[in-house]
Specification:
It is built from five helices and no strands. It has 160 residues and is mainly α. One of its GO terms (molecular function) is nucleotide binding.
Length: 160
Amino acid sequence: MTGRSTTGADWTHANLADAKGDLKAEIARTDTKAGLLLAFTGTVLAGVLAAAATIDVVLPALVVAGVACGVLAGAAMVLLTAVRPHLGGDDRASFPYWARLTTEQITAAMRDDRRADVVRVLSGIAVRKYCALQRAVDLIRLAVVLLALAVLVAAAGVVW
């Protein structure tokens, strides 16, 4: 049997390259999801506000719809946090750090294998973005329930 055996260093090289690529793809997916959710949230919010301004609805339904709009606005703020660039830190593994260096310092920094640092930094970015998406989706779900309640209250004509 001819062939080369795979060493731990070979696997490390391949795994770091795969992880870096996977993380960049995950970050791109979170940005796409956040953009879609922002568009959805804005559309629903605009629709609810337009309906509230043109339809004669009982006060309790307006109050519940108003709370739902506040929750939707909160979801939009969380989504904006998810897409907001993180440009700080001294992680030595991202473009904000490299932007502060001279050409000579960048060249010196590139002599070391920083892929593990890059994977760590990208992992942190991905986790922060996914946590924000989770919170936003939870808020949107709450807003949908509140809007359904507002519709039921309006349909029933409940007056306080």
